Amino acid sequence: MAQKRTLSPEQDIAANPAENVWVQANAGTGKTSVLVQRLLRILFRSPDIESCGILCLTYTNAGAGEMRNRILAALREWAMASDNDLRDMLCGVSENKNPTDIDIAHARQIFFTYIDNPEILKIKTIHGFCEEILRRFPLEAGISPSWTLVSDTAQRILMQNAFDHLINSSGNARTDAAFEHIVGRVSETAMPELLGMLTSQYKYFFGVDNFDNYRKYFIDTTRYFLNLDSPIQTETTPEKLQNIINLAKTEKKPLNYITKVINL
């Protein structure tokens, strides 16, 4: 026998489609169960389920998948349960206090209608919903109709490929000079951080009102990151060389030795 979903009086109010509600509760208190019951009631009480449009947004793919699985499991129970069990499950879902035979037949049909037309209930992440809008209206959004979504991993690969192409290209004296200056100040391990900083700044370019002011801010930020305002030491004085030799004789720990040499 299928289990009957029991709700507290407060949960029953939140699951009532006629009420506009804001639910706030701690984890594990039944928020998802209440939302599932609310969606089931909307599906059951809609006069024309095929024209019913329900949008449910979540933060994560896991949350969206959980919601879809629960809804589908409940509708499957409606389709396979005995009449007596289904009548018990529909208490609270149906507006009739005692579900009728018509209610029973209607509940069974909802499962097959949903299978044939899953678009009547869209459960998506916020990002997934925005992606769907952009795919439907690319020209209105000012993007190419053939656009594709780039994941964070793919973005890092593209950035690295672009960077590799830049440093391996020849014939551009300005690029060569800039790269020579960067590698003299930024270690190989810090290069991904620099690329990340440049990428994060790039995202704001399209919303800049005063580009001249932003250009100055961008240059100042980059100069600070690269430590461009400090003088470059191109030679080692005899005194400094002697200090390095003395440190090598007295300092036994390599890390401490390197640190002290850098700070000379």
Percentage of residues in helical conformation: 55-70%
Number of helices: 13
Q: What is the fourth-level CATH superfamily of the largest domain?
A: P-loop containing nucleotide triphosphate hydrolases
Runs with pLDDT <50, length 5+?
Answer: none
**Strand percentage, roughly?**
under 5%
Number of strands: 2
Roughly what is the average pLDDT, rounded to an integer?
A: 79
Quote the CATH topology of the largest domain. Answer: Rossmann fold
Total number of distinct structural domains: 3
- Termini distance? 80 Å
CATH architecture of the largest domain: 3-Layer(aba) Sandwich
Outline, from the CA principal axes?
Answer: elongated
Largest sheet: 2 strands, parallel
Oligomer: single chain
The CATH top-level class label of the largest domain: Alpha Beta
Give the topology string: H per helix, E per strand.
HHEHHHEHHHHHHHH
Category by helix and strand content: mainly alpha
Q: What brief labels describe this structure?
A:
3 domains, 2 strands, Rossmann fold, single chain, 264 residues, mainly alpha, two-stranded parallel ribbon, 59% helix
Question: Could you describe the 3D structure shown?
Answer:
With 264 residues, the protein is mainly alpha-helical. The protein folds into 3 domains: 9-141, Rossmann fold, CATH 3.40.50; 152-232, no CATH class; 233-264, no CATH class. Helix content is 59%, strand content 4%. It contains 13 helices and 2 strands. It has helices spanning 9-14, 31-45, 61-80, 83-89, 101-116, 126-136, 138-141, 152-168, 173-183, 191-202, 211-226, 238-250, 254-262, and strands at residues 54-58, 121-125. The chain has a two-stranded parallel ribbon. The longest helix has 20 residues, at 61-80. The radius of gyration is 32 Å and the shape is elongated. The mean pLDDT is 79.
